[in-house]
Amino acid sequence: MTFLITGGSGFLGSHIAAELVRRGVPVRLLVRDPQRARKALEPLADGAAGVPTALGDVTDPAAVAAALRGCAGVLHAASVYSFDPRRHAEMRAVNRRGTEVVLAAARDAGVDRVVHVSTFGALLPATGPITSDAPVGAPREPYLASKAAADHVARQYRRDGLPVLVTYPPALLGPHDPRLGDQTRRVRDVLRGLMPIWPDGGFPIGDVRDAAVWHADVLIRGGPAQLAAPGRFVRTSELLRALRAVTGRRLPAVHLPAAALLPVGRLAGLAQRVLPVHVPVEHGAIYVCKVARALDDAPAPRPLVDTLADTVHWLHEAGHLSAAQAGRAATGRLTGV
Predict the structure, then answer these.
(1) What are the sequence ranges of the domains in the chain?
(2) Exposure check for the chain: N or C terminus, fewer CB within 10 A?
(3) What span, in angstroms and rounded, lies between the C-alpha atoms of 154 and 148?
């Protein structure tokens, strides 16, 4: 029984593919760049770099249909995840449209199971704690709005009879992030001294390795129609405190109300459209800190300090941080919070 994975060269998708390989489950990846996929999978599991690939894009119906031939199920993890305003048009084009194309092809192929990877942010904003069976939200942020639109698509296909399970992972950290995604880059920027001002509030955080094991279980065994992946709500002050603990560094920072920082984020977004380098102040990230809530039914992940220590240690090993910037985590030593 072969499973197709979209987004298999990304952070979560590559870890899920590697977990399935470790279990001896046949996997095929739909990717735009097979070499990038091999590079992402190679450090994760023996034999993972040899996983068969199908060349194509999730917005191409013919490529998706061809990739699905002979597959019993599909895990759709491909999307554009970024708060960078320069990628807003790409998000709108890929996230909803890609979900529509993949699920239509799965319906036509008659697969037994579809897992659509959403995000906790698709359920926002909310006035209090939420669960995975909450209605789709109406977030006022382009990335989250594109994922909410994709969530609507997935739920409609389920109402029409396709066996779709929708998962809600938190923000993910951990080692081996092949594209240095938003959360991993933020940790790097903090340790480079580029983020001395933080919004209050917080957001759910999990470990990519926990999420990979959990998603592999869901893909193989099934479950309820909507499920919250492992994660816990972490306030920004708690995140910084944990980073100080694993690095042994002071990391001075000022915390301000997220609502007060939103205009600053908008101005930074306008500047980002013309600046050639990434600006580590993002309206979308500030918005998430303002409106995010815990998912009450999410399983608990491993301790935050363990996830952060492994993330920072990997960032140092991969050359993204100096030994001084990584602090104690450069050698893998942990300390309590």
Answers:
(1) 2-174+205-232, 182-201+234-331
(2) N
(3) 10
Q: How do strand 226-228 and strand 197-199 relate by DSSP bridges?
A: unpaired
Positive or negative, the CA dihedral 5, 11, 14, 17 is negative
Joined together, the tokens standing for residue 230 give 């492992």
pTM exceeds 0.70 for this model: yes
CATH superfamily of 2-174+205-232: NAD(P)-binding Rossmann-like Domain (3.40.50.720)
CA angle 296, 297, 299 (to 5 degrees): 115
DSSP 173: E
pLDDT digit string, tens, across residues 155-203: 999 999 999 999 999 999 999 999 999 999 999 999 999 999 999 999 9
Beta bridge partners of 30: 6, 54
**pLDDT per residue as tens digits for the range 206-236:** 999 999 999 999 999 999 999 999 999 999 9
In angstroms, the CA 108 to CA 176 distance is 35
Write the secondary structure of 233-293 as one string of H (helix), E (strand) and C (coil). EEEHHHHHHHHHHHHCCCCCCEEECHHHHHHHHHHHHHHHCCCCCCCCCCHHHHHHHHHCC
Segment holding 74, helix H or strand E: strand 71-76
d(CA 15, CA 197): 32
